[in-house]
Amino acid sequence: MRLKTLDLGGRVAVSLFAVTLLGALSTAELLILHSLGGTMSIEKVKAKYTGSLLVSSMHGSMYEYVTEDESIAIVERWIAAGATETGYGDDVAAVMEEDCTNCHSKTSTMTDAMPSMPLTSYDEVVKLAARGLPGGKLLMQLHVHAFALGTILLVLALLVCAADIAAEWKVLLPVVGFAGLWLDTAGWVLGAFGEWAAWFIVGGGGFLAAAIAAMSIVILLDCWMRVPVIGRVPG
Question: If you ran DSSP here, which 8-state letter would residue 191 be given?
């Protein structure tokens, strides 16, 4: 089967699938930027995935609720000192009360309340102070990421194999995509062991996004025309 041999309905459906993936990819990039506080940098990736969830949230998506930057510094110093119950004391508890517990409490009635993630006591706060993604969040993200993106990459790879492009690209593009997925998810797991894992996430995410975009564009073009540069010349 070749994409060009599909009837009009088939080519339209495949094209809409490719366009939808390109749109979803753009939305995902915007979502990542939002979670990192609006700008992409290796330091912010380190903070989100290899630092504590508490501090990365205060630097990122929850920054608008932080009274002052010194509040973040207080929490960072407490974590660096071992996140002990004794060190929790008045300063960290005061930061939580002033900036966090209006929404992060089991009895909150705020519009954006998060009763499932309370921050009203030392035992609740220290769970989010450990380096790397918390266990439950990590497992959920790995599960969704691996199943969803693994399936998308498989479908794209099969469609690329039906495109009129050079054989080596039919191997290279899927390999880059799956390698990116594995590097990205490995970085999440290894984030608990050091900041260096952020480079796995940045590199893997870049390879993954590039492969998805490239395969989607190849599929979209091949449905209607010869793919430039890597397309096979008819005959």
Answer: G
Question: Are the C-beta atoms of 197 and 185 separated by less than 8 Å?
Answer: no
Report the SS3 class of residue 103: coil
The pLDDT value recorded for residue 234 is: 63
pTM: predicted TM-score of the whole model, two decimal places: 0.76
Q: Tens of pLDDT along 29-38?
A: 888 877 776 7
CA distance from start to end of the chain: 17
Q: Tokens for 127, please give them.
A: 């769970």
Among residues 80, 77, 75, which one has the least CA distance to residue 57? 75
pLDDT tens, residue by residue, 71-100: 889 988 898 888 888 889 878 999 998 988
What does the angle CA 46 – CA 94 – CA 32 come to, to the nearest 5 degrees?
A: 25
Q: Is 209 helix (H, G, I), strand (E, B) or coil?
A: helix
The CA distance from 81 to 196, in Å, is 21
Q: How many CA atoms lie within 13 A of 153 on its CB side?
A: 23
Other CB atoms within 10 A of residue 113 CB: 15
- The DSSP H or E segment spanning 145 is helix 135-161
56-83 as b/e: b if 16+ CB within 10 A: bbbbbebeebbeeeebbeebbebbeeeb
Nearest to 221 by CA among 48, 1, 4, 34: 4
At 160-186, the pLDDT tens digits run 999 999 999 999 999 999 999 999 999
What is the distance of C-alpha 157 from the center of its chain? Answer: 22
Cα–Cα distance for residue pair 73/55, rounded to 1 Å: 9
